[in-house]
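Quiz preparation item.
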């Protein structure tokens, strides 16, 4: 899975474990998710909150078309990017 709300969405936790850091809640991402759900007239489930958890020290890149933010983290000297999937089944141009 990607950086999403379900139990099989493990990249953030795996990245943190590999980098030797803990996960932290990125409040700006959480607020962005809340605004997105509100704009759609939906209540955000507490399970969605985990999408705002990123490894400590990661650069959060955001997500203009979905909820889970992308992030970048240096792991063992390599710059690694973690990006969510496409939210509506089509390609997204950046």
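Solution:
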């Amino acid at each position: 899975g990607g950086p999403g709300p379900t139990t099989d969405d493990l990249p953030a936790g795996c990245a943190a474990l590999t980098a030797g850091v803990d996960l932290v809640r990125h409040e700006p991402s959480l607020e962005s998710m809340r605004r997105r759900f509100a704009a759609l007239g939906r209540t955000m489930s507490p399970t969605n909150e985990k999408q705002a958890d990123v490894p400590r020290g990661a650069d959060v890149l955001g997500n203009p078309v979905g909820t889970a933010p992308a992030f970048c983290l240096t792991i063992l000297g390599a710059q690694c990017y973690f990006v969510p999937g496409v939210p509506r089944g089509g390609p997204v141009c950046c």
